[in-house]
């Protein structure tokens, strides 16, 4: 990757990142192994990365490592699509190596070194799947690392953000669940300090009337906003949502002000 906090690049940056990884492993207790593929600046595709790594070189080193370690289960954070080129290339190489490492005809020089073919039982790839017909609408006011709208990966996921007059915002989690609707509310943001360092709970809203009110008058209203809402694009940038016509403006926060106290007036 790049270096935004110092002048080091290329080999010097690789040394820094190696030290960072080694220090992190002391905390996690992980055992480190390296493929010793060259570090360089940001790459946009795995083809760009392979041009410097060498596709066959990367595969041979990955197969060698699998045969050395002989794991039963392999887990990777990097699918062969999405993310920058380094991650794509590692994900692509690992998926190929998962099968190739069991083939005695692949890299026969390993046999001469005493490395036997090895077939791991499982390969798990961390990924989100939003391209299977399931519509997912997220409203994330702050930083969102997910990339929606990526064809074949997250093309049914939409992420919007509303930043307006009020700091506070609702935390609602709604699942259509094949018609068996579930709705939960909570007080905490989905941020590391709450997910990793605290015990937070969500409360199911089981009363049908209250559930419908929370769903329709808060959640769906926010998702329909076209005045303050911004939509996250697949390249990580945001675009303002524009109403199709002046009389179709939906300003969520102004509507909530106009309707304040409305719930209390109902039976």
Description of the molecule:
There is one protein chain. The chain is of the alpha/beta class and 267 residues long. The relative contact order is 0.08. The longest helix has 19 residues, at 10-28. The chain is 35% helix and 14% strand. The chain has helices at residues 10-28, 46-53, 55-69, 85-100, 109-112, 192-195, 208-223, 252-258, 262-265, and strands at 73-76, 122-125, 136-139, 157-162, 172-175, 182-186, 202-204, 229-232, 238-240. The chain has a four-stranded mixed sheet, with no helix packed on it. Strands 5-6-7 form a three-stranded antiparallel sheet, with helices on one face. It has a two-stranded parallel ribbon with strand order 1-2.
Number of helices: 9
Task: Detail the poorly predicted runs.
Answer: none
Order of helices and strands: HHHEHHEEEEEHEHEEHH
Can you give the mean pLDDT? 87
Shape: elongated
Characteristic terms for this protein:
single chain, 267 residues, alpha/beta, four-stranded mixed sheet, three-stranded antiparallel sheet
Q: What does this entry show, briefly?
A:
The protein has 267 residues and is of the alpha/beta class. Helix content is 35%, strand content 14%.
Q: What is the topological layout?
A:
Blueprint: H1 10-28, H2 46-53, H3 55-69, E1 73-76, H4 85-100, H5 109-112, E2 122-125, E3 136-139, E4 157-162, E5 172-175, E6 182-186, H6 192-195, E7 202-204, H7 208-223, E8 229-232, E9 238-240, H8 252-258, H9 262-265
Parallel strand pairs: 1-2, 3-4
Antiparallel strand pairs: 4-8, 5-6, 6-7, 8-9
